[in-house]
Amino acid sequence: MDFKYPPEAEEFRKEIRAWLEVNAPKHKHPPYDTITVANDAEWEERRAWYRKLHSGGWIGIAWPREYGGRDADVMQAVVFHEELARFNAHLPYIGAGVALAGPTLIQWGTEEQKKRFIPKILSGEETWCQGYSEPNAGSDLTSLRTMAIEEGDYFVVNGSKIWTSQAHRADWMFLLCRTDPKQPGSRGLSYILVDMKTPGITTRPMVEINGQISFNQVFFENVRVPKENLVGRKNDGWRVATTTLAFERNFGGRQYPNLVRDLARMAQQIQINGRPAWESSAVRQQIAAFACEAEAIKYNAFRGITRRLKRQPPGPESSILKLAGTELNLRIQMFAMELLGPYAQLDRGEAFAVDGGKWLERAITARGGTIAGGSNQIQHNIIGERVLKLPR
Predict the structure, then answer these.
(1) pTM of the full predicted structure?
(2) Is the confidence at residue 251, as pLDDT, over 60?
(3) For the chain, which domains are there?
(4) Closest among 269, 326, 316, 268 to 294, alpha carbons compared
């Protein structure tokens, strides 16, 4: 395999790098690509950076021009994210619109839905949340019970969703619900778009261990949703939902070598027994082991890039990336806590906090990555059945 990037991609790299040198935010906050948002002020900072990226034409660059994208090819998109990481200026997370809702609508939406929603997803004018998990239907998503019953020109929705990221700030939700209670499992499910301002919706924020709010439980009581907000066919929503899940689990893989380098830099700065931690052979060996794993994940991610170059949808290799990447991230953060010792308990903004307290925040949220997007136990099943062809 030839890992050299084509000339067009390198020219694109020069363009985005020149723009970032002028426009990248000069902040010391943790990268804005995580779902964890410290407060409303940070949310507005993220939206401001998102709008600046949009003004430069850097949001949805791989989307069709007719929907506001650049028609950038796969390798240009890879280069784009590499350069964002180089400047610590990641694509800011302001909901699930540009990563999940937009690509799903491009594939499954009607022309009316695409024209209505995609431009406002790109501009950040409307933000989105994902209505999948329920109190009794998490990784076993097909057992969900939220109902949407047809009544004239509407679906009437009743039920509850949980672990809904940024629902308290979102304008819209893409909701997976049951439209035929007589059909079991993945049959009888539908995928609909819900305006979060619709009467009957109650959002209850969930305070996390770090005192922040990213997740919510959302309640639906006789919520009337126009039938034109159905995406795909009625009772065939699982097909649409799995498209969204494939995008959600396509974690990329190229961020992990950067994370290891960040850990190595920190190990060179802090001291253990009066000497830089980096001088310990045990510390260097552990970080070297992390680096090997990170490189393996990065090269496995090239399989996903190859599928996209062949115009194929994301495949089960995205489950491998999600599983290996989130497990590696968790072990890196736990090791960082060991290196920091008593300084590990200092949070963002506190005096003497190393790197502004970002390592504690990363450690607190790392376990969640092994659960979000389909728990890692579920990913083991997917890999066993779809990749290794093992019996169920």
Answers:
(1) 0.82
(2) no
(3) 7-94 (1.10.540.10), 128-236 (2.40.110.10), 250-387 (1.20.140.10)
(4) 326
Helix (H, G, I), strand (E, B) or coil at 132: coil
How is residue 55 written in tokens? 């003004």
Helices (H), the chain: 7-23, 40-55, 74-86, 102-108, 111-123, 237-249, 255-269, 281-309, 317-340, 358-369, 376-382
- Say how many CA atoms lie within 13 Å of 255 toward its Cβ: 22
266 Cβ partners below 8 Å, 6+ apart? 336, 339, 340, 354, 355, 359
Rounded Cα distance between 135 and 131, Å, is 12
Catalytic-residue membership of 350? no
Residue 194 has pLDDT above 90, yes or no: yes
DSSP state of 365: H
- Over residues 364-379, the mean pLDDT reads 84
- Distance CA(175)–CA(161), nearest Å, equals 9
Among candidate residues 45, 83, 134, 248, the one labeled active-site is: 248
Q: What is the mean pLDDT of residues 138-161?
A: 93
Give me the residues paired with residue 271 across strands: 276
For residue range 275-297, list pLDDT tens digits in order: 999 999 999 999 999 999 999 99
Q: What is the dihedral of CA 64, 65, 69, 74, to 10 degrees?
A: 50
